[in-house]
Amino acid sequence: MSSGEVQAPGKVILAGAIAKSIQNEVLDGLSKLTRAPLLVGFLANKDPAARLYADWTGKTCEETAFFHSRVVSFLIEFRGFRFDLRQVDREDLESHLLDANQDDSIDGIIVYYPVFNSRQDQYLQQLISVNKDVEGLSHHYIFNMYQNIRYLDDRGLQKSILPCTPLAIVKILEYLKVYNTLLPSGNRLYGHTVTIVNRSEVVGRPLAALLANDGACVYSVDVTNVQQFTRGQGIKKQRHEVVDLEGWTLADCVPLSDVVVCGVPGQSFKFPVNLLKNGVVCINFSTEKNFSPEVKEVASIYVPAVGKVTIIILLRNLLRLIENKSPRSE
Question: Rounded to whole angstroms, how far apart are CA atoms 206 and 200?
Answer without folding.
Answer: 8
